Amino acid sequence: MTEALTLILAGDRTLYQIVALSLAVSATASLMAALVGLPAGAWLALSDFPGRSFLIILVNALMGLPPVIVGLTLYLLLSRSGPLGPLGLLFTPKAMVLAQTVLVAPIIAALTRQIVHDLWHEYRDELTAMAVGPVRRVTALLWDARFSLITALLAGFGRASAEVGAVMIVGGNIEGFTRTMTTTISMETSKGNVPLALGLGVMLMSIVVLINAIAWGLGRWGTRFSEPGRDLLPLVYSR
Amino acid sequence: MRAAASDLPILFEDVCVMIGATPLVAALDLLISAGRPTALVGPNGCGKTTLLRLAMGLIAPTRGRISWGGKPQVNVAKRAIVFQRPVMLRRTVAANMRFALASKQHGTDRPDRVADLLRWVGLAGLEHRPARRLSGGEQQRLALARALARDPEILFLDEPTASLDPASTKTVEALIETVSASGIKVIMATHDLGQARRLAGDILFLVGGTLREAAPAAQFFANPATPEAADFLQGNLVV
């Protein structure tokens, strides 16, 4: 453990390179997943069409999508003989971003659907009475649910940054190019290089704790807008 | 600027609203014209809120026809409603107002209009407070300001002072009187007979989803035409 902390405090170049790549890949994947998941979730929450319930069940089920299945599927698609082979993405950070996006998008979509659905239930009469159109309705709901949605986005980022199976398969764990915290921990542990694995483990845990702290703080701050003030709470709960 | 075409009078012709086999409103023939406030009174569950929602155009009748100014439902642009439990958007007081104004597209006069309306309902100085942190009376006044921001020709109020203390009730009633004096047709549901007596020009008395009596307020209170109305005014239970 001492050696691991020394690596962190001494600013070990390899360790921080791996951390930087991991964060870049996960942040990009989370952003892309948000671009897909937020509107998709809002659309599922507000629209009504045949098969909607099935789609909701499917999206919810995809939250538990096994990373190795995603990795294997993308590997087959991106490999030289696969349909997307000519793009040359296999064993690149872009392939890792793609894999994490596929894993995170259903999480963001499913959580967004639930959050927007609950808020729509609350807002429906007011927005209908104000003759608010469909586009403004979606933007209003997404904006007013922003604190809950940020928590959903951070949950997605947490899932992406902790993921190992898919990025290992499509990234190839190439030193200095596609090696992330999780793939390095897995490999270095099997090699017996525990200090580097431990150092990365400490960094990974710190990031996860930081993400949760941010989510908690934003949630607390957001309650200013969604709940009565402390001075009014006794009145609310005594009703 | 208000368009020349009017939504008044509102005409109900043999209107019926059913939930399954249960009628919420039955065989309703009614004409609501411009003038002093119209109050809907009657015991709980008599159909006051359903009638308000029908007249606002939020729900469609199961049977029968409603027209506004001789035309069938087009949009609710000239109508606004304050619900019994108005939902505050998860934003500041000013942002709630801006949202309502945006749905009316007032354009450049928006900041002045927000300030004017908030001053008028006695909420000046609270612009930056989260709307859900206002007291019940303040939220009711904000809901009223938000409704008026849409520059309505007809204002529907569903139990506007239910659960408010006498001081807040007095303030809200004074605002309703001013609104009515400005030429806006007020149609309100209330269980408070004193309030109906103070504010209304006409009374619609409902029991069990049917209209039992429609009369000028003075005549209704002095000389009710039906035994149910007489019982109701004497404080007897009417079901």
Question: What layout of secondary structure does this protein have?
Answer:
The complex is a heterodimer of chains A (239) and B (239).
Chain A: H1 2-9, H2 13-46, H3 52-62, H4 67-78, H5 93-129, H6 134-144, H7 146-161, H8 165-171, H9 181-191, H10 194-226, H11 233-238
Helix pairs in contact in A: 1-10, 2-5, 2-7, 3-5, 4-5, 4-8, 5-6, 5-7, 5-8, 7-10, 9-10
Chain B: E1 10-19, E2 22-32, E3 38-41, H1 48-56, E4 63-68, E5 79-82, H2 93-104, H3 110-120, H4 136-148, E6 154-158, H5 166-181, E7 185-189, H6 193-199, E8 202-207, E9 210-216, H7 217-222, H8 227-233
Parallel strand pairs in B: 3-7, 3-8, 5-6, 6-7
Antiparallel strand pairs in B: 1-2, 1-4, 8-9
Question: Can you tell me about this structure?
Answer:
The complex is a heterodimer of chains A (239) and B (239). By secondary structure, chain A is mainly alpha-helical. Chain A contains eleven helices and no strands. In chain A, helix 2 crosses helix 7 and helix 5 crosses helix 8. The C terminus of chain A is likely disordered. In chain B, 34% of the residues lie in helices and 24% in strands. Chain B contains eight helices and nine strands. Chain B is of the alpha/beta class. In chain B, helix 2 packs across helix 3 and helix 2 runs parallel beside helix 4. Chain B starts with 9 loop residues before the first strand and ends in a 6-residue tail after the last helix. In chain B, the strands form two sheets. Chain B has a six-stranded mixed beta sheet with strand order 5-6-7-3-8-9, with helices on both faces. Chains A and B meet through helix 5, helix 6 and helix 10 of A and strand 5 and helix 2 of B.
